[in-house]
């Protein structure tokens, strides 16, 4: 309707500014004026007049196209699937001293995982002697990506430089701020994986709703001290709450690492989970497939099509064309 009104207004302006037919009575003849058409000033004004006429044609055509687009009612269509909103994933990261050199790689994998998600809620919890929630479950992927990139920058710390004293103080401050809240100065313990896993299991809300819940646990399983939950007990704790478990192992090779890795893998396997090493190139795709295909809650939801009007661009072009047409007609008239 707006387009029709604008077109009528343009037509009215054109009609009002018309010169009408010429007759001998309203033509003033000037003798010896044939040379005027050869003057540079005359040719210049005539060229500008012709350019103006061409401009009027182009602007009028542009306005007509914009009006046609508006009459066609441009819209955006978005298909929403409510199944995606029933998946919750907690990223559960060991930030003990033995994991610092590997955590940046793990977080980089987390970022790759997030890029493959669409609608799932995600949380990040870090732990050592105790745990800290970096961000709770959210589907704000801008926030998730920003926080993971901050975590990546903080954890990308060279431990060798720390040992030989050549580290950048700013880098050390950054990682210390990030892991703050995961250590207890009164206890000699580290990497309490069972406690960390149980803490991650408590981050899931909406316990009375049917949702798919998954923990992605990354650790080297190098436990120091006596935890409240062993790894097996922590896995039992989350399994009782119907929380799926995906394990990502990463760590240095030591005299005990083979046994620690095997325990980690066995606990994940006995709880019907997926196990990967951080260096496994297939890990990201396999984890996304598990979350999307095997652990999603199938609600038999019918996809919802959301239709939104998008007239802004065409309307803006039409208004600009109208203003330009009025200006050009005025210039041609004068």
UniProtKB/TrEMBL annotation:
Residues 88-291 form the VWFA domain. This is VWFA domain-containing protein. InterPro entries: VWF_A (IPR002035), vWFA_dom_sf (IPR036465). Keywords: Membrane, Transmembrane, Transmembrane helix. The lineage of its organism: Bacteria, Bacillati, Actinomycetota, Actinomycetes, Micrococcales. It comes from Serinibacter arcticus. The chain crosses the membrane at residues 51-72, 312-332.
